[in-house]
Amino acid sequence: VSDCRFTESSKYGLRLSLSVNDSEVLVSLATGYNDLNARFSYLGFGGYAKVENADQVTRFGIGTETAQKHMKTKLNISQLGHKGTIILGLTLGIALGLLVLHWKFYVSFNKLMRSILILVITLWLTELLIVWGTCTKPLCAEFNSDGTESESNAGVKLEQSDPHVFHLPTVVITSLPSSGAEILKQAFYNSSDFVYLRVPTEYLDIPEEEFEIDSFVDACEWGAADAKNGHFTLIQGWFHSLIHSTKLHLQNIQLHESVKDRSHMSVSKDRKKWHKNKESNIRSKGSLSRDAEHIKQLRSHLVAYPSARVVLSLSSGSWTLKLPFLQEVIGPSLKALYIIRDPRSWIYTMLYNSKPSLYSLKNIPQHLGLLFKEDKSEDKCTSESGYAFEYESLRRAVQNSESDEVSLLSYLWQANTEAALRINQGLLQTNYLLVKFEEIVMFPEETAEKIFAFLGIPLSPASLNQMLFAASTGLFHLPYEGELSPSSINNWKQSMPREDIRIIESICGTTMDLLGYSELVD
Questions:
Q1: Through-space distance between the first and last CA atoms of the chain, rounded to whole angstroms
Q2: More confident site: 128 or 470
């Protein structure tokens, strides 16, 4: 190593230039380590350091990649090549020749100027035709019609197609309820880079004037077109407020009202609303005060770390079918994590892991009955508009009086998972990541690194330690499941009736194979 010198020093970082084996290396270090915006602005990603040379860029915590050499999008004289140079030279040569002719033979000045003007116009038209004919790239076509627009359009297209372009992440976590997505709170909780928000809670709930989001699941899929065409504007506005003005949104929440006061503020529109209110009122007496205290903690967190990025954990399974809508609302910063669980483990959790079962506590029969209830209201999706056709098998099972709990839950998992995989396949890999719950528990370090690499931010030791604690010690508890450990997630293999396993595998087998869940071999 030789020739080490500082090339830049600022409030948020510094740069060193080194000569390593006669090759120049540029080292950039971020010093505002608690400010994600500052690190991103200085380094171009959410990490702490990067090293660049002529061939590659190493972003510490993310990886190494080949250096990208982006082409300039400005049209200049060099793009005309040899033809432009020759034409320019001929113009100057002829002009000088005419001047010499005038000086030597005393040609009339007016006649000479007319000749020069005709010659310049002729040469200019010739040059224009050459440029028009030889410039065949889309960039040139746009330049010919609107030069200022072409450069910006090219930049947007390049940014959308380039996987190495990083955005500050807005994280959205979706899953079927009781799929174990709550464990990801450990990766984001108490971090200077993130603020973790669970939705819905007593004080954080999505407005339902336009559409009533079922607390468990629904069969309505929303796409980018719904957002573009102005559908569900209140919901769009609520997401914009929570994501882009998080601190102000939390400050505007009134914390003094009681559950009883809230119940008088809105009247149930139908039985579906009544069931939701009933579920919320089952909560313990201290839950409201805990929610209020949590809001206060979130406010304090944002005061200490104003650049913290939002992590939305959407507990309703309805949102698994609405990620394209959220992509359009949130924009390229969306980082959607879809958590999926083995259907046998999920159904075991719903039916056998607690007493009374989650199936009863969450009123699953009522939810499924309301899912296919005849409703002519405008917010109800139909087979002609917004209805996920994969739910037809579940609808037939619900209408069949002989369907038992295992069959209903199997058809529900199959319908929701198959529909989510179809709907979300159009999302870019930079915006969407499917994560298996079993991988989080069995391989917490590798899975956490994969998630944070997807987010474009290095995994911090504190977040890794919290994930390892939750997955490996047996001291972390998921709601209604008891202690969590690599062995506990396979309790269904020993405790679940073999006939139930057979039913689940016969209904969900195709999607299980697609996701890598093998059938149980006795």
A1: 61
A2: 470
| pLDDT exceeds 80 at position 273 | no
By the 10 Å C-beta count (0-12 exposed, 13-18 middle, 19+ buried), 286 is classed as: exposed
| CA angle in degrees (0–180, nearest 5) for 365-200-290 | 115
Cβ atoms 469, 186 nearer than 8 A: yes
Lookup: tokens for 276: 């939701």
State the pLDDT at residue 103: 62
| pLDDT of residue 310 exceeding 90 | yes
Write down the pTM of the prediction. 0.78
Please give the Cα distance from 449 to 458 (Å, whole number).
8
pLDDT of residue 164: 56
Q: How many helices (H) and strands (E) does the chain have?
A: 23, 13
* Closest to 318 measured CA to CA, from 442, 199, 475: 199
Residue type for position 442: M
Bond prior to 497 in cis (omega within 30° of 0): no
Length of the chain measured in residues: 522
| Sign of the torsion formed by the C-alpha atoms of 310, 316, 322 and 324 | positive
Please tell me which residue, 354 or 39, carries the higher pLDDT value: 39
Q: Going by C-beta distance under 8 Å and a sequence separation of 6 or more, which residues neighbour residue 345?
A: 437, 438, 489, 490, 492
Q: 293 pLDDT exceeds 70?
A: yes
pLDDT 10s digits, 435-486:
999 999 999 999 999 999 999 999 999 999 999 999 988 889 888 888 899 9
Please tell me what DSSP assigns to residue 307: T
State how far the Cα of 408 lies from the Cα of 503, in Å rounded to an integer: 10
Cβ–Cβ under 8 Å, residues 212 and 378: no
Structure tokens at 318: 């309805």
Exposure of 27 by Cβ count < 10 A (0-12 exposed, 13-18 middle, 19+ buried)? middle
Query: What is the mean pLDDT of the segment spanning 211-221?
Result: 91
